[in-house]
Design a protein that fits this description.
Number of helices: 7
Shape: globular
Largest sheet: 13 strands, mixed
Helix content: 10-25%
Number of strands: 42
Length: about 650
C-alpha cells in the first residue's frame, strides 16, 4: 500500500490561528474518526520534508545541543498559498504524519512535531522552513529587565544610574559569591533572584561576612526575603555585595496532591470521587474522576498553612469527562477565577496574595454540574507554578533546584511555554535524576542568555544533552557507553554505504589521556583592594580564582596515541567528589577506542526497526566491516531523514 505524508501547519492570519491540513496525495479522514472526523487534507505537498537532528552537532560527542532543521515544498501552481502571503508562519506548530494511503487517521504515525520558521515563494512552489522545538528555546531566559523606576526608598527596580535596562538576575541551585543587584540603594535592598528562593546562606561586603537576622538588621547584619529573593542591609555597604545563594525554591504544601478521595480533601455535599480511573499526565493510572453538583460553590478543597500577606500559586491538572465545562478555581474563599475545561489535560493556575495564616485552595461549581478528571494539585510560595511535586501524606518541604534534571525542568516550565508533564518526556528526566543522584549544580545568570544556552551549561556539566522527541516532548539524556541492549539492529541486508569517520571533537576522536573539570564556580572574581583587609587568606585564595579544578589521567593512552589530547570542561558542579567522579566517568568513556559510524538505509527499514531516535542504543553487524561481525553496540547521535530520496542516514558512536 502506498505511503502518504500528512502535515498540519498552523499560521497566524487575520488576527487568529488557522490550521492548514495538507498531504502528498488525496486523503480525507473517516466520518466517524474520533479525533478528526471527515476532514480533507489537500494534496499540495510536492515533497515531504527532509530533516536532520544531532545530539551535539554532526560528528560531535560533546558541546551544545543542536537544533534540527528541515524544509517542506508545497505546490502553489494554482496560487492557493498567495492568500497567506502576510501570514505569520514562524513559531507556529508543525506536525508531520506517515501512514498507509487509505488508512484511518489514527493509524498514521506522528514522525515530527516542531515549528515553522519562514516561508519562501519560489515561482510555482512555496518552501516552508522548519525547526524542531528547540527553536522555542532560542529566546532570552529572562525577558524582564529592571525599569529604573525607584522613587527614594520605594521600589525594587533600580534607577537610571545603576541597573535600569539590565536583565533581572536568576539563581538556580547552590551558587557561590554571586554579585547582588542594587534593587534600591536608598533602602539598602539587594536582589539575589527574580522570584522566590530557598535561602541566602551567606552575605559579604567586600568579601567580609555579614550576619543574618530575622528582625530589623543593624550595621553588619542583613535580613532575607525569600519570597521575592532579596536582602536588606542594616547599614551602607563599603563595596560590592556578594552572596552564597540556595536559589529557585521548590515546594508543595498539600498533604495529598493526587488522591482526592483522602479526607484531607474536603468535599461538599454531592461531590463524589472515583479513585485512579484514567491515565494521568504522569503516564500512570493515577487520575481521579470527580463529579461536582450544580449547587453554586460546591466543590473540593484542602486546607494549608501559609504566611499572611505573601503570594501563593495554586495549580492543578484538569480535564472534562465529556465536552466543555466551566468551573471556578480559588485559593481563598472570597476569591475565584473562572476556568473552562475540555477533554484534554491542562494545568490550571491561580496566584493570590493571601490575607490569613490558613487557606483552602480548591475547585468549585459556578452553578452547573460538572464531571471532571483531576491530578497533581500543588500550592507553593511565589507567583509561578513550578515543578509538579507528588505528595502522599506529608507536604514536600521547601528545597531548591540543584539536581541537573530538576534544574532543567524548572527552567523549562517557568521560563518557556512548556507545561510540566504535558510537554516533557518525564521518563527521561527521571532517568537522568537517577543517573545523577546526589549531584548538585549552581547556575547564576546576570546577563543576556537564551534558555538554550542555560540548558547547554547544565547538560555539559554532567555530559548530557537535551532534545525533543518525535512527538514534540522535551527530553534529556546523558551520553554513556553502550550497554549491549540495543533497541534496534541493522546489517548489510538493509544498510548501504557504511563508513567509519573521525569525529569533529578536539583530537578528531582519538582517545583522551586526561580529563580536567572545573567545579564550584566563583561567580565574581575579587582580588587585592576589592576585598576588605579582614578577609582571611583562605577566603582570598578562593575569591581570586573562577574555578577549582580536578583531573583524571591514564598515561598509557599516550603510549598508544601520542597525539592524544586532554578533555577540558568548566562545569557548574558544586561538590569536589562529584567533579572527581565525573572526571573518572569521562575518562572511562573517552579514554578508549570509540568508533563513529555512519550508514544509510531505506525509510521503510528504518520505521520497521522502530525509528530509533537520539540517545537510543542500536547495533550494527557487518562481517566485512572492521570487527563488527558480532554486532557493535552504538549510541545514536544523529539522524538525517530524506523521505523524497527514500534515505535515512544514521550516525552512531560507541
Amino acid at each position: 500500500m502506498p505511503i502518504l505524508y500528512l502535515a498540519e501547519i498552523a499560521l497566524f492570519q487575520s488576527g487568529a490561528v488557522e490550521t492548514l491540513r495538507l498531504s502528498t496525495g488525496p486523503y480525507r479522514t473517516a466520518p466517524d474518526d474520533p479525533s478528526l472526523p471527515d476532514v480533507e487534507f489537500l494534496p499540495l505537498i510536492v515533497s515531504p520534508p527532509g530533516f536532520s537532528a544531532h545530539a551535539f552537532g554532526s560528528g560531535r560527542t560533546g558541546g551544545r545541543s543542536v537544533t534540527g532543521a528541515g524544509e517542506i515544498v508545497l505546490n502553489n501552481a494554482d496560487r492557493f498559498f498567495d492568500r497567506y502571503a502576510g501570514a505569520g508562519w514562524d513559531g507556529r506548530p508543525f506536525r508531520l504524519y506517515r501512514g498507509p494511503s487509505g488508512g484511518r487517521f489514527g493509524t498514521f504515525e506522528l514522525i515530527f512535531a516542531g515549528t515553522a520558521e519562514q516561508a519562501e515563494w519560489r515561482d510555482l512552489h512555496l518552501h516552508l522552513f522548519l525547526r524542531d522545538r528547540q527553536a522555542e528555546f532560542e529566546v532570552p531566559i529572562q525577558r524582564e529587565t529592571y525599569d529604573g523606576s525607584n522613587s527614594g526608598s520605594t521600589g525594587n527596580e533600580g534607577t537610571a544610574d545603576d541597573i535600569k535596562g539590565r536583565p533581572k538576575i536568576l539563581c538556580y541551585g547552590l551558587c557561590h559569591n554571586v554579585p547582588l543587584a542594587p534593587l534600591n540603594t536608598a533602602a539598602l535592598r539587594y536582589g539575589a533572584h527574580d522570584g522566590s528562593i530557598f535561602s541566602v546562606d551567606e552575605l559579604y561586603d567586600r568579601g567580609a561576612p555579614l550576619a543574618k537576622v530575622t528582625g530589623t538588621p543593624a550595621a553588619g547584619q542583613f535580613r532575607e526575603n525569600v519570597t521575592e529573593g532579596y536582602v536588606t542591609l542594616g547599614g551602607s555597604p563599603a563595596g560590592t555585595i556578594t552572596a552564597k545563594i540556595s536559589g529557585e525554591r521548590l515546594e508543595n504544601l498539600f498533604l495529598w496532591s493526587e488522591q482526592f478521595m483522602n479526607p484531607a480533601w474536603v468535599k461538599d455535599a454531592g461531590v463524589t470521587v472515583e479513585n485512579d480511573v484514567i491515565t494521568g499526565p504522569n503516564g500512570g493510572l493515577t487520575a481521579e474522576r470527580i463529579d461536582i453538583p450544580a449547587d453554586e460553590g460546591a466543590g473540593f478543597r484542602q486546607s494549608v498553612s501559609v504566611t499572611s500577606g505573601q503570594p501563593y500559586t495554586f495549580s492543578l491538572y484538569l480535564r472534562s469527562v465529556v465536552g466543555n465545562v466551566t468551573l471556578g478555581i480559588g485559593i481563598e474563599a472570597s476569591t475565584e477565577q473562572e476556568i473552562t475545561l475540555d477533554e484534554r489535560w491542562r494545568r490550571y493556575t491561580i496566584t493570590e496574595a493571601v490575607s490569613g495564616s490558613s487557606v483552602s485552595p480548591g475547585i468549585f461549581s459556578l452553578g452547573t454540574a460538572a464531571a471532571i478528571h483531576a491530578w497533581g494539585a500543588q500550592i507553593e510560595l511565589g507567583g509561578v507554578a513550578k515543578n509538579c511535586i507528588v505528595t502522599g501524606g506529608t507536604p514536600h518541604p521547601s528545597s531548591y533546584t540543584a539536581q541537573p534534571a530538576d534544574m532543567l525542568r524548572t527552567i523549562a516550565v517557568t521560563r518557556s511555554d512548556l507545561v510540566d508533564f504535558l510537554d516533557l518526556d518525564h521518563a527521561s528526566f527521571q532517568t537522568l535524576n537517577e543517573r545523577t543522584a546526589g549531584i548538585g549544580l549552581g547556575l547564576f545568570i546576570d546577563r543576556e542568555m537564551s534558555i538554550a544556552e542555560a540548558f547547554d551549561l547544565i547538560c555539559e556539566s554532567v555530559g548530557g544533552f537535551w532534545y525533543f522527541t518525535r512527538d514534540g516532548r522535551l527530553a534529556v539524556r546523558r551520553l554513556e557507553a553502550p550497554t549491549g541492549n540495543p533497541v534496534a539492529s541493522f546489517d548489510r541486508s538493509v544498510v548501504a554505504n557504511p563508513r567509519r569517520l573521525t569525529t569533529n571533537d578536539a583530537g578528531r576522536g582519538l582517545p583522551n589521556h586526561r580529563v580536567v573539570l572545573g567545579w564550584r564556580r566563583n561567580w565574581l572574581v575579587q582580588q587585592g583592594d576589592q576585598l576588605a583587609g579582614s578577609v582571611p587568606a583562605e577566603r582570598r585564595a578562593f575569591l581570586s580564582e573562577e574555578y577549582r579544578t580536578v583531573a583524571a589521567a591514564d598515561p598509557a593512552v599516550l603510549t598508544a596515541h601520542p597525539l592524544s589530547e586532554e578533555l577540558r570542561r568548566m562545569t557548574l558542579l558544586e561538590d569536589p567528589a562529584d567533579a572527581a567522579a565525573e572526571a573518572d566517568r569521562l575518562l572511562a568513556l573517552h579514554g578508549v577506542r570509540r568508533d563513529l559510524i555512519e550508514f544509510e538505509l531505506p525509510v521503510a527499514a528504518y520505521f520497521a526497526a522502530g525509528a530509533p531516535w537520539l540517545g537510543d542504543e542500536i547495533a550494527y553487524r557487518d562481517d566485512r566491516f572492521l570487527d563488527y561481525a558480532g554486532g557493535r553496540p552504538l549510541i545514536l547521535l544523529g539522524v538525517e531523514e530524506e523521505y523524497e530520496a527514500d534515505r535515512i542516514t544514521l550516525q552512531a558512536w560507541g
